[in-house]
Design brief:
globular; 2 domains; alpha/beta; 5-stranded parallel beta sheet
Amino acid sequence: MPSEFSDEQLNAFIDNEIDSADKQRIFEALRRDEHLRKRVCELQKAHDLIRMTYQSIDPPTGYPPPEQDRPAPRFLRGMAAGLLLAAGTLLGWFAHQQSRGDGLPELAQAIQFAPTTTGATRRIMLHVSTDDEYRLNHMLEETERLLETGRENGERLRVEILANGPGLKLVKKSAGPAGQRLQRLQQRYDNLTVAACAQTLERLRAEKGIELELNPGTTVVKSALGEVLERQRQGWTYIRI
């Protein structure tokens, strides 16, 4: 049966560019329509990849920094689209492994998985790109449960938290309660690693003159996109927060 929603409407829903009534209609449809949930998942994945690709592209020398609400220049759109296509099987990996929809329920669900019996290490990447305090604290609570459950069960488990964009709030020095809680988790669990995106840090320096000091124990990776691609290639489970 044809869907009552077009891709244009669903893209607007993902971008939060529709009114409350239409948003509620889509939410209600998502609850009962598995096919629609899959469509929204695929569109969201494409949005996420293109956004990370934009962040990985440096504009030509002398090109003025874009205003926050101005669309990306046409040449950047073309480059991003080309890189997205060049990723090849990435969307296939995401379709098989990436959490669908809200990453917080998926993280909670990961705690319920039985430890592997093959001796392989379970590896989970948590990609944090939000500065919302509720989501950050909820993510840390579920991460602690995941790590503690793994320890109690003798499970071989690795967890990586990757922060970029607004998510850098979590890993900056003096980040508040969420950042302090993350540091305590790092001290308690040696199978938890934390990484920050170098390109976001550089953009803050270049565009806003902000030198962001990171919490001890935070490593810096060249780009969030590159780290996600590498972890996907290695078989990590990817959860977007």
